[in-house]
Amino acid sequence: MAAKPEYGNWVPKRLIYMSGFAGFVFSGLALVFWVLAVPAVLFFLVAAYFVYARHQFSLQGGKVQDRVWTLVLANLDWNGEGKALDIGCGNGALTIKLAKKHTKAQVTGIDYWGKRWEYSKSTCERNAEIEGVSERVTFQKASAVALPFDDGYFDAAVSNFVFHEVSDAKDKREVIREALRVVKKGGKFSFQDEFLVKQLFGDTEDLVETIKSWGISKVEFIQTRDADFIPRALKLPFMLGTIGIIRGEK
Ligand SMILES: C[S@@+](CC[C@H](N)C(=O)[O-])C[C@H]1O[C@@H](n2cnc3c(N)ncnc32)[C@H](O)[C@@H]1O
Question: Is the pTM of the predicted complex or chain greater than 0.90?
Answer without folding.
Answer: yes
